[in-house]
Specification:
CATH architecture: Alpha-Beta Complex
CATH superfamily: Spore Coat Polysaccharide Biosynthesis Protein SpsA, Chain A
Distance between the termini: 51 Å
Helix content: 25-40%
Number of domains: 1
CATH class: Alpha Beta
């Protein structure tokens, strides 16, 4: 699809995991001269204010050490989930008060998220946990991640299928071999 006044580039996805697919597209965008990108899943719907709010937040968040700035969504984990009730939020309201805050976090899911060329490091070759590992690697270099006030509707993790246990099992061997410290944390059996 070609949008009026927008240059679009279609890339064939030859990767067999999210990490490699994200890396290929991001590195191509950077090679083409872009200094920053939005990673956007193919199963999100923007509101009329998603981009405007994200752009405002990017002006507010200090650029120094800024890595990922991610939108909130209705199908996301932890504080990135629009339904997550934070301290000070009250039950029975239409919106949580915390939705008006930008939040610094350790890990985001790049469902709809901004990052610069200078901050980028490659994702590991995984479906599940690739974003966690990349975020932690960026954080180990002093990088900071934020949840924006912006919002997208996320249809939700349909690509890998509904067998979440299998998704975890598929990622385990690579993590155990390449990141044993994380395997010990994430796959403890007690």
């Amino acid at each position: 699809m070609i949008m009026p006044k927008h240059r679009t580039i279609t890339s064939e996805n030859t990767a067999d995991n999210f990490g490699d697919a994200y890396n290929a597209v991001a590195l191509q965008a950077f090679e083409d001269g872009h200094e920053d990108i939005i990673v956007c899943n193919d199963d999100v719907v923007l509101t009329p204010y998603t981009w405007q709010t994200m752009a405002e937040d990017l002006k507010i968040i200090p650029e120094k050490n800024r890595c990922w700035v991610a939108a909130r969504a209705d199908y996301a984990r932890g504080m990135q989930n629009i339904r997550y009730q934070q301290d000070g939020d009250r039950n029975g309201t239409i919106r949580h008060a915390s939705e008006n805050s930008i939040i610094e976090v350790d890990v985001i899911a790049p469902i709809f998220a901004h990052i610069t060329k200078n901050a980028w490091i490659n994702f590991p070759p995984l479906n599940w946990f690739s974003d966690d590992i990349q975020c932690l690697d960026l954080q180990s270099t002093g990088g900071k991640h934020y949840i924006s006030r912006s919002y997208v509707h996320h249809v939700g993790s349909q690509t890998c299928g509904p067998d979440f246990k299998q998704c975890v099992e598929d990622a385990k061997p690579w993590i155990q071999q390449n990141r044993p410290e994380l395997a010990e944390l994430w796959f403890k059996t007690t």
